[in-house]
């Protein structure tokens, strides 16, 4: 049976076979959500990059489509975006709207033999099914820069222009264009801001309402940073909240405390969907659920990597300022099969009220009152020898995932780890929403204020569940456990 291999995600997007990394070209068009992705069709490790392709109407069930973009005389196809060219500014569509992909062509510089990264276009006249390379490619190059990649483009209505944000080593650059073909340099951001633990990659710039108020918006600049051997976290994604005037991004906070989009180890290179307008003003996001530190080594056979769950991004004012909050897309609720429910139960050290539950693919929504417990949490994918712990340390006020005993961890020394992030309880209470699949756990804490996404590789037989408290008694306000159907069933 397809998609039943060991560790194959049952409700996360995976390529049918072979290697996948970054999500690319996400765009909503004519009733379909498109997802392209960095793809090496010739093997299960990173290699010559193509764009794989899938579409969905609910962001949960995906239909695989033939390869969208293949290497050509300008090189491999690195990461990039796709936009709806509503007014046919590009002239590719004889006056109608159509889809344009803007991506990095990567090859060797003919004179210096160093890597060269230039930006190119492709367009589709048939709902993204086939793509034509623009004969004027590349449309944007930079003589001085070796790292110059991952263009993300959006239409800035006040100036009636396209804006591109693109990664350039230790910063991002902004360009503007009337037609997607001719690009003019506008500004740069980041040399002095944020985390520089790795090379900057895959930026995105989006405008979001604050606290749901459409007339009060801030701009969010998302920047992924690459792995560096000396940083245990590997590759991760940061963001900045600020303003944008059509050519320049300014961060609200100076100096800037680093804001992490996800405090887990496996959410990288994520960006948002173009043209997926939502009534609530939120933006749809998806990330690559891996980490360059060990991405090529994870223990799957015929394919490698999954995407995170798609999430809705919004902005909320918190005690330390305006922050991103994330919520899994509502389409996932269709997968809920069986529900069990607990309410108002003490959580006593040594007693596990979930001891008769068993599941390998599930969702949990729960609210806990910490009481006198020093630590409280859930153990998942449990057996005699394995468990993944999602816990809250009440005195340190940190949420953690401990995957040191989560299953197969030996493929890289940094994988078997425990990592944590600050999270304040609200009036002594903690809310957790968890999604557990065959090879991952995603935690949305306190209504998505803090998110942790981690891969795990437990034995298929490790399906035990435990709700635990240490050092004192906690109280379960409520817990709902949903068995989740596979998207393949
Ligand atoms: C991020 C990244 C991008 C690049 C792509 C190559 O993971 O390194 O910067 O375009 O992957 O596959």
TrEMBL record:
Residues covered by the Glycosyl hydrolase family 32 C-terminal domain: 332-482
Origin superkingdom: Bacteria
Domain Glycosyl hydrolase family 32 N-terminal: 12-328
SMART domains referenced in this protein's UniProt entry, alphabetically: Glyco_32 (SM00640)
Cellular component, GO, one term: cytoplasm
Keyword hit for Hydrolase: yes
Any one GO molecular function term: sucrose alpha-glucosidase activity
Alphabetical list of CDD domains matching this protein: GH32_Inu-like
Regions crossing the membrane: none
Biological process annotations from GO: sucrose catabolic process
Keywords: Glycosidase, Hydrolase
Cross-referenced InterPro entries: ConA-like_dom_sf (IPR013320), Glyco_hydro_32 (IPR001362), Glyco_hydro_32_AS (IPR018053), Glyco_hydro_32_C (IPR013189), Glyco_hydro_32_N (IPR013148), Glyco_hydro_beta-prop_sf (IPR023296)
Family that this chain belongs to: Belongs to the glycosyl hydrolase 32 family.
Protein name in the entry: SacC2
UniProt organism field: Paenibacillus mucilaginosus 3016
């Amino acid at each position: 049976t397809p998609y039943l291999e060991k560790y194959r995600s049952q409700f996360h997007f995976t390529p049918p076979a072979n290697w996948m990394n970054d999500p690319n070209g996400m765009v909503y068009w004519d009733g379909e959500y498109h997802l392209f992705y960095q793809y090496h069709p010739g093997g299960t490790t990173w290699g010559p990059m193509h764009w794989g392709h899938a579409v969905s109407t609910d962001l949960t069930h995906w239909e695989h489509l033939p390869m969208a973009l293949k290497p050509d005389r300008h090189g491999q196809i690195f990461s990039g975006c796709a936009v709806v060219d509503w007014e046919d500014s590009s002239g590719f569509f004889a006056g109608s709207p159509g889809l344009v992909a803007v991506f990095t062509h990567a090859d060797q510089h003919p004179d210096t033999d160093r890597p060269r990264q230039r930006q190119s276009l492709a367009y589709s006249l048939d709902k993204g099914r086939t793509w034509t390379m623009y004969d004027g490619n590349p449309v944007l190059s930079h003589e001085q820069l070796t790292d110059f990649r991952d263009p993300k483009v959006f239409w800035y209505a006040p100036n009636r222009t396209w804006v591109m944000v693109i990664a350039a080593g230790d910063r991002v650059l902004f360009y503007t264009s009337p037609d997607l073909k001719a690009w003019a340099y506008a500004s740069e951001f980041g040399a002095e801001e944020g985390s520089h633990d790795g090379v900057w990659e895959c930026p995105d710039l989006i405008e979001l309402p604050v606290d749901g108020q459409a007339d009060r918006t801030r701009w969010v600049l998302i920047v992924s940073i690459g792995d560096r051997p000396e940083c245990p976290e590997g590759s991760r994604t940061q963001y900045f909240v600020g303003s944008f005037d059509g050519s320049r991004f300014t961060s609200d906070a100076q100096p800037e405390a680093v804001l992490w989009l996800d405090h887990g180890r496996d959410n990288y290179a994520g960006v948002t969907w173009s043209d997926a307008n939502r009534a609530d003003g939120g933006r749809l996001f998806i990330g690559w659920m891996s980490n360059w530190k060990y991405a090529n080594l994870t223990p799957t056979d015929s394919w490698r990597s999954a995407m995170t769950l798609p999430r809705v991004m919004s902005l909320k004012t918190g005690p330390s300022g305006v922050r991103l909050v994330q919520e899994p897309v509502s389409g996932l609720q269709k997968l809920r099969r069986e529900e069990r429910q607990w309410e108002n139960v003490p959580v006593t050290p040594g007693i596990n009220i979930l001891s008769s539950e068993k599941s390998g693919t599930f969702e949990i929504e729960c609210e806990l009152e910490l009481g006198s417990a020093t630590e409280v949490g859930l153990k998942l994918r449990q057996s005699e020898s394995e468990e993944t712990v999602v816990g809250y340390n009440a005195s340190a006020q940190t949420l953690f995932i401990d995957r040191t005993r989560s299953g197969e961890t030996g493929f890289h020394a940094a994988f078997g780890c425990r990592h944590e992030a600050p999270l304040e309880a609200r009036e002594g209470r903690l809310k957790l929403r968890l999604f557990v699949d065959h090879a991952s756990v995603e935690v949305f804490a306190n209504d998505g204020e803090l998110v942790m996404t981690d891969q795990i590789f437990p034995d298929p037989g490790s399906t035990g569940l435990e709700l635990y408290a240490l050092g004192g008694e906690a109280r379960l306000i409520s817990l709902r456990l949903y068995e989740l159907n596979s998207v393949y069933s």
